[in-house]
Amino acid sequence: MTTVKTAKPLSSVDRIRQEIADLEPWFHNLHLPDGTQTAPHHSLGDFPAYKWKEMAAFLPPDLNGWTALDIGCNAGYYSFELARRGARVVAMDVNGHYLAQAQWAARRLGLEDTIEFRQMQVYDFADSGEQYDLVLFLGVFYHLRYPLLGLDIAARMVRRLMLFQTLTMPGLEVREDTDNLDIAERDRMLDPGWPKMAFIEHSLAHDPTNWWAPNHAGVEALLRSAGFRLLAHPGHEVYLCEPDPDNPSCVTTWNSVEYLAATGQNRP
Ligand SMILES: C[S@@+](CC[C@H](N)C(=O)[O-])C[C@H]1O[C@@H](n2cnc3c(N)ncnc32)[C@H](O)[C@@H]1O
């Protein structure tokens, strides 16, 4: 007589653990309702929960009636937090693997009806005409080969607030006297407070998509140049800003032709 071994049915927690394993690798450690976590041994710690703790108090606790865009949403941690506050969220990422994680997690969290997921590049928004009350542009800028173009595209979509984060060079100095430098005085650019952006030709931390690292003065200058007013620094490398009607970006005024050309919008 042959004995047939039947596999023990998986408990629901075991099944979720199996699904988490099937969706590896995870960059976001999501905390799921049954207590499981997607990346409990993350090298950065409980990421990005500890970053969110820095930022959370700087955003309105009630986002009912707000629309939000999460650029480079990854597994959706921040989108879920905004949706929990009542925002209607568009979560986009270029990477289908991360989006699959985010969509799976949204179902586990019961948030699938308040978040629209899109697989696309930030550049694809260039001619969309879309606007959002709140834009998250976290951890993406320095991964772009065309970072200022990405920032200009994001800036046009911000109705009220943008939360921005980038890898930076060390140092918090800010030099104010940067206007109309004499060509013979360029040694002043070597000052630590001069706005700068380091170019990373080869990979940084084994990631060939880490292209740029601005310094703190550089981030502030880039954001101002994209038409923002800085409101706060909620944490290390994190910047909260709003559109500054008194200092609009040149791509909305005298330099609009370059923006249109760079985004393929002024072809006959
Ligand atoms: C370092 S992770 C940051 C994820 C998340 N925003 C955060 O702060 O934790 C960078 C994310 O940006 C996405 N990304 C990179 N280039 C992109 C692009 N051109 N358009 C949209 N997303 C992009 C990556 O797939 C990845 O999910």
Describe the structure.
This protein is α/β, with parallel strands linked by helices and 268 residues long. It has a single domain (52-262), classed as Vaccinia Virus protein VP39 (Rossmann fold). It contains seven helices and nine strands. The protein has helices spanning 12-22, 49-55, 77-84, 96-109, 147-155, 216-225, 256-262; strands at 67-71, 88-93, 115-119, 132-138, 158-165, 197-199, 212-214, 228-235, 238-243. The chain has a seven-stranded mixed β-sheet, sandwiched between helices. It is elongated, with a radius of gyration of 21 Å. The mean pLDDT is 96. The chain binds S-adenosylmethionine. S-adenosylmethionine binds next to loops.
The share of residues in extended strands comes to 15-25%
Helix and strand pattern:
HHEHEHEEHEEEHEEH
What gap, in angstroms, lies between the N and C termini?
80 Å
| CATH architecture identity | 3-Layer(aba) Sandwich
Cα Rg: 21 Å
- The third-level CATH topology is Rossmann fold
Specify the overall morphology.
Answer: elongated
Highest CATH level, the class: Alpha Beta
Summarize the structure.
The protein has helices at residues 12-22, 49-55, 77-84, 96-109, 147-155, 216-225, 256-262, and strands spanning 67-71, 88-93, 115-119, 132-138, 158-165, 197-199, 212-214, 228-235, 238-243. It has 268 residues and is of the alpha/beta class.
